Every structure is written in structure tokens, then in C-alpha cells.
Amino acid sequence: MPPTLQTVMRRMHLRPLAGTSGPGVLDAAVRWVAVSELADPTPYLEGGELLLTTGLRMDGDLTCYVARLVRRGVAGLGFGVGVSHAETPPALVEAAEAAGLPLLEVPRETPFIAIGKVVSELLAAEQYEEISRAFAAQGRLTRAALRPEGLHAVIDRLAKEVGGWAALLDESGEVRHATQGARTDAVAAELSRRRGRPLDTLRSSGAGPSDAAEGRGAGDGGLSPGARPGRAEARMPASLALSAPGEHIVVQPLGGGGRPRGFFAVGAGHAFTPVTQTVINAAGSLLTLSMEQGRAQRAAERSLRAAVLELLLAGEEERARAVLGRLGGRLPAAPVVVLAAGPDALDALEAVTFTALTGVPDVVALVPEPEADEVALSAGTPVGASLPTGYGTLRDALDQARRALEAALDTRRGPVVGFGELAGQGLLALLDPAAAHAFSTAVLAPLTAYGSRADLMESLRAYLESNGHWDAAAQRLGVHRHTLRYRMRRVAELLGRDLEDPGVRAELWLALEAAGRPPLRSRATPASRPGNSR
Q: I need a labelling partner for 356 at 20 to 30 A (CA). Which of 20, 75, 149, 362 fits?
């Protein structure tokens, strides 16, 4: 804080003449020293100066002169005697006392430049002290970042440094950690408005949008007045400054890229000084660094787990256990259930069990059999589950999980589909939908190209479903059995196949069943090569 008028007065032995008896008057901050002999120096002042003059042009009524200085907000007026005036003009003393302007007498032997030097030195000392405090605060924040709590420890330390509160939010605006008294409601409301999203999509501390503080944006010219929910901003600003009576909040994004990976907010009942802003910026850098380092570490661990899965699929169980042990991890005890899911399930699954990223499906988890149902439901996305298996048959179990996941994704049957459910639904449920459709198209192509294919296809289906019994099939179709025999001979000729062969009948029935279902997206082969891992 700049030196007070009282400090300057005592250091330079200035004698108070008027306007110094009011409470707190001498505690006014002196931000600079200005010297002027102008009748109206206020156009060249900013406020907070100690104005020095010898009264070269002072005479008559000085009420207007003093009033202009008071309106400008000068800290005080120093009058140098022994140059233009042997003593301070009584009219100036009277006007200063009436207006409450501190008036100090500067002795003849005290040069104005000496007063300026003293104030400059005091300001420099204060700035040095502020910088020292900022460095000390940054050191404490850095030590907090090295603690096991990491991000949370930095937030806790930051709240103490600013004399207020601090909060950490993820990229969606959900509060991950907050100190006592944090006004996350105002922060969530403003982030919601900036993104054009409904407030109820963000988890806050319970207050509604009406409680959000009015704000001004730092660096973007202020928060957009009248911004409407439903219209997203092109990008988040570098920082936000929200203010209300007795409340000052700063919000900054976290992350090294163009898209924020999270936010942190700091609030206090007083405005933040430049030193405090420096401390806040330092905390933002530490939080971003910790976040990016954490992401890099997670990426490395995920790559290692993908390699462990490749070893397991290759039958190298012992090597896989040794590699995973270097991470301090271990494989679940057999029998296990293999879970296959999309990438959205990664965070939920890897928090509770061994999970690896692969080519297709994106996420594979190994779960002890008793916990399989609970873990699969916790993923929050469609999941396919294999039958219980040992590590020696893991590749087959992974294929089962893949097929079950395909059913969960394509039939919308529910969040979790087990392979055992598919096994009770016939052969077609176990086949790749795209491959089955391609097979059907190729086998039945001669019939679909034939002009009266509808009768032939319908007759073939009735014949197969009646197990080759002519009378039953003809009755189902409502035609004479000789008509059906003619059609079947035509089908056999077009297909070039013997309809009496049980294998041919099975293939034709499968082709007809697949033709009755819409083609689905193809499933790739499970990632079993290092090049397929992500």
C-alpha cells in the first residue's frame, strides 16, 4: 500500500496547518508528488497526489482553488514558505479548513524534490515488499502442488492467500473441490450463460441464476449484456471477473489447448490487488501444469495396460502380470468376465477394475465374476459381457463380449447384454450382422434377380419352415402341392443347389432370416496386434 500522508509528514517534518483534524484524514494514501504553480492544476492530476506549491500566483479568495483540489481527490496540499510568501496565506488556511483539505507547511530549507524522492523511495519499498509477498505466496502454492492432494491442495492454499475462497470445476462446470463459503452458484450461472446451456445442466451449490453476481469480463470488454440462454459464445474468454456489493470473483480456464479442460474460481469480499492477481495467475499455471501432467501420466498408464492386454491375448499371462506389477497393479482373480464398451465408459471402468483401450471395442475391462453385473451397470453406457472365463481362453471371451456389445448397441435392449442371452436366441444372434447380410445377399441373388422372386422366396421359406414336408408347406401357402414342387424345382435350378441336402437347407434358412433384418455396421476384428492399440 502507498505511504500515508502522516508518514510523509513525519519523515519530512511538515507542519499541519489545516484540514487534518478529521478522522482518518492523515491516513490518506500518497500515490505521487506533484509540483504546480498553476491557478488550476487539476487537469494534470489523477488524484491521490501530494500537491506542492509556493503560491506564486495565489492572492485573494482561494476557496475555488481549494474546492477544485478536493474534487480532484488530491491527498493533500503542501505550501512552501519563504519563496513567494513569508508565511502561508491566511485565506488558504481558512479555505482548506472549511473544505477539509489537509494543508501542510513546507519549511524553506526543505526542497520539493526531497519530498518527491522520499515518496518515491517509500513507493519502491512497498512495491518490493509486494513482490516479495507474491514470491513467498508462489512458493507456498508450489509446495502445495507437490503434496499428494495435488490440485485440491493448491485450491486450499489459494483461498488462504487471497483471504477468501477458491473452487475447482471440471470442463462441464461441475464442482470438483471447493473451500468453505465458495460461491460456486454465481460461477456456474455465468459459465452456463456463456455456453448458452440451461443452468440445471451444471451442478452448483443450490442457488439459482438470480443469485449470480453481475460481472465484467477481464480482457474481453465485459460480459455480454443481455446474452440469451440457448446461444453459445464462440469461445470462453481468457478470464472472467464477476462483481457485486461485497463480492469479487475471478474465474480462469485451465488447460493448454483452445478448449478449457476445467476452471478455477477465486472470490473475496474485497477487490483483488495487483499482487493478489499475480498470485492467482501463478495458481492457474500450477493447476494447469498439474492437470496436463496428470493427463500425460494417465495416457502412459493406459498404453501400458493396453500392452498388458495384448500379452494376455497372446497367452503370456506371467509376463502380463509382471508388466502390470510395475504400475503397482494386479489382474483380477479368475474366473473373470470380459466387459466391452465404448470410450465413454473408460473413466468409470478404470476406476474400479483393470481396463484397457483397444482398437475395437474401444474399452475392455476384466472383472471378477461376482462383481461383473455391478461394474457393468456402473459404466453408464451400453456394455457387452462375456461368459465367465479363465485367462487361457481370454480371446474367446473377448469375442463374446464384442458380440454382446453389438447386440446392446444395435437392438437397444438395455444397458448391459450378456453373451449368454444371445446364445438362447439362435445362431443368427451370434453372427456379425453385416457379414450375415452380405452372405444372405450373395446366396439369394439368383432369386432376387428372377422376375417372380416374391413367390419363390415365400415358397422357399414355407418349405424350409415345414422341414421339407410338401403338404404342410403347400397348405401354409394356400397352393396345390404340385405348384409348390414346381416352384422348388425352379429355386433349385436358379440356386444350383440340392434342396434335399440338410446343409443346404440350413444355409438357405440362415440367408432368409438375415435378409429379413436390416444391415448393421460391421464389427472389426478385436485388437490383438500392437499396432491396433491406442
A: 149
- Residue located via cell numbers 451370434: 430
User: What region does 60 belong to: left with phi over 0, alpha with psi -120 to 50, or beta?
Assistant: left
Mean pLDDT, the chain, integer: 80
Distance CA 446, CA 460 (A): 13
Query: HEC profile for 378-418?
Result: HCCCCEEECCCECHHHHHHHHHHHHHHHHHHHHHCCCCEEE
| 3-class state of residue 26 by DSSP | helix
pTM of this prediction exceeds 0.85 = no
Q: 264 is written with which cell numbers?
A: 478455477
Contacts of 315 (CB under 8 A, 6+ apart): 392
CA distance 98 to 87: 19
CA distances to 214, 221, 222, 228, 392 from 225, in Å = 10, 11, 8, 9, 64
Question: Distance between CA atoms of 76 and 102, rounded to whole angstroms?
Answer: 5
Handedness of CA 61, 63, 66, 72 (dihedral sign): negative
Beta bridge partners of residue 268, listed in sequence order: 248
Rounded to an integer, what distance in angstroms lies between the CA atom of residue 236 and that of residue 233? 7
pLDDT per residue over 209-263, tens digit each? 333 333 333 333 333 323 333 333 445 556 788 877 888 899 988 876 556 778 8
Return d(Cα 477, Cα 466) in angstroms, integer: 11
Cα separation, 417 vs 409, in Å, equals 9
Please give the single-letter amino acid code of residue 267: G
Which DSSP helix (H) or strand (E) runs through 338?
A: strand 336-341
The 8-class DSSP code of residue 243 comes to E
Which residue type does 69 have?
Answer: L
CB-CB contact of 384 with 405 (8 Å): yes
Cα distances (angstroms) measured from residue 347 to each of 88, 226, 302, 341, 532: 78, 38, 11, 11, 21
- DSSP, res 172: T
Between the alpha carbon of residue 322 and those of residues 97, 217, 264, 312, 328, the distances in Å are: 87, 53, 40, 12, 10
Q: How far apart are CA 305 and CA 81, in angstroms?
A: 84
Give the long-range contacts of residues 145-150, CB within 8 A, separation 24 or more: 145/286, 145/287, 145/289, 145/290, 150/290, 150/294
**DSSP assignment of 285-303:** HHHHHHHHHHHHHHHHHHH
Region 7-16 average pLDDT:
93
